Amino acid sequence: CVGYADNAAHDSIRVVIKTKQGKAKVDLLNELSLGYCYNDPSFAKQLIFECIKVADDEKYGEGCGKAYIRLGIAYDVTGQYDSAVYCYKYALTKYTSPKGLGSAYNNLGLIEWKHAKLKDASDYLYKALLYFQQLDDKNYLANLYNNLGLIFYETKDLKKALDFQMKALRIYKDEKDMEHIGATCTNLSNV
């Protein structure tokens, strides 16, 4: 019965996708695929490959970059590290926006962190920082500060860990983001 439910959901999504064209279709495919990257990466990849084709046809670099980020996530979830890194790096060639470029560097930093390459991870996160500082949406910056704080905690540089966690906490408080305030306070208690 679970397989039937999944197939029915997939069929419903395909019907909705057929109602869209061009950039709107790319944006919808990107939005839908992210939800499947973690719990059904195989289906997510189907959506993403379609998204990349349409984005390329439309010469929609931002949409294509976002699709490669999603593809990288799907590969990461399935343990395909080299493919994930390739996708994140390829996204850098498609993006022009600070948000997109920062996201690609952030994901590269996270995957290197996951593989205990802390120097590479912090280098990528610092590159993301340059882009996220340009955004009006400060949540990206706060999340990045949090990531940097966690990496510096792992490298035993507690002064930097504390500094970045406090920067994240100030933004989360300004944004009244209670969930992240709690998580950051937990991180601070470890420092």
Structural overview:
It is a single chain. The protein has 191 residues and is mainly alpha-helical. The chain contains 10 helices and no strands.
The value of Rg in angstroms is 18 Å
Which range does the strand content fall in? Answer: under 5%
Order of helices and strands: HHHHHHHHHH
Mean pLDDT: 91
Secondary structure tally: strands: 0
pLDDT < 50 runs, ≥5 residues: 1-5
Helical proportion, percent range: over 70%
Multimeric state: single chain
Describe the main β-sheet briefly: none
Which structural class should the secondary elements be placed in?
A: mainly alpha
Shape: elongated
Distance from N terminus to C terminus (CA atoms, Å) equals 48 Å
List the total number of helices.
Answer: 10
Which terms summarize this structure?
191 residues, elongated
Give a short summary of the structure:
The chain has 191 residues and is mostly helical. It has helices spanning 2-18, 22-37, 41-58, 61-77, 81-94, 98-114, 118-132, 138-154, 158-175, 178-190.
Secondary structure blueprint with pairings:
Layout: H1 2-18, H2 22-37, H3 41-58, H4 61-77, H5 81-94, H6 98-114, H7 118-132, H8 138-154, H9 158-175, H10 178-190
